[in-house]
Design a protein that fits this description.
The chain is an all-alpha fold and 90 residues long. The protein has a domain of 60 residues. It is built from five helices and no strands. The protein starts with 27 loop residues before the first helix and ends with a helix.
Length: 90
């Protein structure tokens, strides 16, 4: 996946207080840090965790990154990640 990104503010929203994982509030780095959630990213957004600019955007959420992806991070991918996160045991 060849995401083309332009970086503005890289602030990420904090993860949900109830421990739930969300494409809107959980930083990509947090998702990539656990094997079960990294597997979801690798399945639904191939190449994201191996992207050369990963260190620059890992503090962002997927929703925050989407507008900077030039259309390469789609609504469908975001929805698929969230659906898979929702299936994980709480």
């Amino acid at each position: 996946m060849g995401l083309t990104l332009s970086f503005g503010a890289l602030a990420a929203a904090p993860a949900l207080a109830d421990g739930g994982l969300s494409v809107e509030s959980t930083p990509i780095a947090d998702l990539a840090a656990k094997p079960e959630t990294k597997a979801i990213l690798d399945k639904d957004v191939p190449g994201l965790t191996a992207h050369p600019a990963f260190d620059q955007f890992k503090g962002m959420t997927l929703k925050a990154l989407q507008p900077m992806s030039g259309g390469q991070l789609t609504d469908e991918q975001i929805a698929a990640v969230q659906a898979d996160l929702d299936k994980l045991p709480k």
